[in-house]
Amino acid sequence: GPPALAVVSFITGAAVAGEVAWKLAGGARELAARPDPAPSTLRVHRLTDARGMEEFPTLSPDSRTVAFVAHAGGNLQLFVRLVAGGGTLQLTHDAANHLYPRWARDSASILYYSPAPDGDSPGAIWEVPALGGAARRITSSVGGADISHDGARIVFPRLVDGRVELVIAGRFGPVVAKAARTKVARLKAAG
After folding, report:
1. For the chain, what is the mean pLDDT?
2. Backbone angles phi and psi of 171, in degrees to 5
3. pLDDT, tens digit (0-9, with 9 covering 90-100), for 7-56
4. CA 188 to chain centroid
């Protein structure tokens, strides 16, 4: 069948040792190649049944929701779905691609990267409420971002004078520090 997202649970007795969002196209093969970590039961629960690829799955910090990217309306859009079941909610609807979702620590919002349509200009990091609503542009970037464990800072790459800088910034404020800088001959945004 088509690739789908699944939740894989390692269960010892009645206690769940951990849950992982896994893409069956490749993820299950990798998991099957690993030795059994302990005498336990492996249970796979399919989360989606959409046609096409569902990419960049990420499990919310509270382990209740999975966010992922899939094609809709000619672009890669951001979706969420409860692990326990129910319908899929499309969070983005605009004529742009949306990549690399990352959950905020409180599971209330998701950051994602949207490349520029021309492929030569920087794209942007956006934040959208996990239950839907208007997205907020955070900053320009040439790639995805990640959020600090306390949720106060983000790290992302940006292009300055032909060099890529890895930047740490306040999630709601100015640049805090430049973590690294490298020279690139030509950078083309992913997408």
Report:
1. 76
2. -60, -30
3. 443 333 333 333 334 444 444 444 444 555 555 677 777 777 777 788 89
4. 20
Q: In which residue are the tokens 């990217």 written?
A: 69
What tokens were used for 160?
């300055």
- Residue 142: count other Cβ atoms within 10 Å of its Cβ: 22
| 190, 157 Cβ separation under 8 angstroms | no
The number of beta carbons lying within 10 Å of the beta carbon of residue 176 is: 14
Cβ–Cβ < 8 Å for 111, 92 = no
Give me the residues paired with residue 48 across strands.
none
Quick count: other Cβ atoms within 10 Å of Cβ 28? 17
Backbone angles phi, psi at 24, to 5 degrees: -60, -35
Tens-digit pLDDT profile for residues 102-152: 999 999 999 999 999 887 788 999 999 999 999 999 988 999 999 988 888
Give the three-class secondary structure for 31: helix
